[in-house]
Amino acid sequence: MEDCNEEDVIETPALPLEIIVYILRFSSHFGQEGSLTSLPQLHNAGYIFIIKYFISCIASQLCLLDSCRWKGISVNAVGEVNPVLLLSLSLFVQNNVTFCFPASASSLELIRGLGRKSHCSLIISQLDGFSMSRSLLLEVGLCLGPKLESLALPGSSVTEASLLALLPRLTSLRRLDLRALDSLFMSGAFLSREEHRQQVRSALSGLEELDLSDLRYLSDLTFNRLTGCTPRLRRLSLAGCHIAFEFDPYRGCPVGDVKDSSALLSLRNLRKLLTEQKSTLVALDLSRTSITPESLRTIAQVQDLVLEELCLHGCKELTDYSMEVLVKHQPSIQRLDVSACTELTSRSVEAVARGLKSMTHLSLSRNWRITEKGLADLLSLSSLRRLDLSECLHVSGTEMVKGLTGSCAARAQLEALSLKGCPYIRDLAVFSLTQLLGETLRELDLTSCVNMTDLSVHAIATYLQKLVVLRLGWCKEVTDRGLLGIVESTKCEPDQETGDKGPMFTRTFGNMGFFKPPRLSFEERPKLLTQNDLQQFKQQAGASLLALSRLQELDLSACPKLTDSSITQVVHYSDLRRLSLSMLPGISDASLASVAWHCRSLTSLALSHCPGISDRGVAQAAPYLLRLQHLYLSCCNNITDRSLFLLLQHCKRLQTLDVSRCKNISVTTVELLQSQLPFLENVHYRFIGGADPTLTL
User: Fold this and answer.
1) For the segment 33-73, what is each residue's pLDDT rounded down to a tens digit?
2) Backbone angles phi, psi at 635, to 5 degrees
3) Rg (CA), the chain
């Protein structure tokens, strides 16, 4: 104890999931008595206190969301445990728990057990119109009616009768997600009876968030019926809906004689809703709609409407004029997504920087006309926390650095930055940005920044040691030396092939002479590391990727110069959740075994197109990947059925498996795996067993 410093006392160590599972094995005793004192041999009060302390550590371990919600704990974390036990555990951990599960007969027990909680949230997928789904929804209403705060039904096709029987019971519901639930709105009869509307209105009077995205059959008639039951909305999503922005179905109708259209959703009707709920509505999502500049102006000018969040992703008709009008009439916007609005230019960036002084989140990705102009002013917004400039092809980072060179009070305190697919980002920009953002940046995406080299990796490892997410996929100039932090001396040596003799010629077409083309960077083989290099790495302090001890996501896919030399020495992160090493021809089973040993928290691992990975590596790794949920092994031809049996034995929480184009895997074994792993929902196995893809239509 003499060696313990203050930090050791404050920060408790992470509790391994295996210990938690061991504790949970006493589920039969726990479920019967409903208290921790029923655990065998733990009647002593001191032991009970210890168990409660252990449980308090679970929240940081099991599938925590960014909003500190426990998502899918009964399925993803300890699916073999009595679901009633999980509910009791959540009483000791936290209250904001989201349970995510597919509709099945076994889910009924979980629903009944949830009745013991004061409040909870549900995401139920794969509901249909059959008796089992109807029984499940009925059980939700009976057991959780006044306790349910959030309900989402993704990938479902429930009937009107089932939902109408459920909604009146959900008196505490705050969020309702009906996205792509076309079965409800196809007939146009949903909530057509006044008595049903009164019942639903009484229950949903406190609803704050309504998601109606991707509804093909939403019309003014059904929209008004539903939103008439939710008078206090704060967030509304109509992303992907067919809204008539340019056509007014009511034009020419006498005043007072207008009936709601049963065929389409109109701008006039949307404006009417915004006017009625202007006092509460702060967030609107109109992504992937055909909204026009005039339509956006109509919405922005709704009197007394004060939007804080607006999402316009993929609205390709919007122009710079649209943005200027928007920021003029809605200056309180804090989160703005105008990604893939391909008509926008730097003029929009300047308008945002000038008019939205409270901006915290901004996405400008895939806006190819945006240049450096205006970025300096944008990075001078002290409130800005997240910036997405991915696939803005003309951004080089120069103006961003200028905007960040001011005082701390007059510059952005970025926590997340995406420069994915920006080909003009080079080492100098990365070096400057890492120095300026070292204290605040937590997420950095430099995927496909093809001109970035090992110097950028050194800068990241030196200055961004608080990073949680790092993506370097397709950075083809990154080598083992970059990850290991070994600085290579740059000597100006004459080219061996040219020397002092000038360019070399070849004789190819008769007597004509041609210059020999220069060697391209991706044609160069990675330089092999020597034992002296590895010894230098072990003796140095910092500068290697090992310094990023907080990483939870790392993407090194398609960096062809990386080999076992760096992966086995650097990828040692106890908190790492997601790792991608796809398309690395230089790694072998040694890398897989090392990753599994040092990164036991992995839930997602990508190894596609890695020819050096074989059954031997899977055999060494599988016993340590007990938390793995998503595994990608496509085009790994040295993987056979033996690997699948190993996964069946050790990785019982698998949800996604990709073994496409693995010629030594049989369909029979894949089907066996599907039947034995209860949570395996997504299996990709096209062209396995040596099937010829050219013979498939």
Assistant:
1) 333 333 434 444 444 444 444 444 444 344 333 333 333 33
2) 65, 25
3) 29
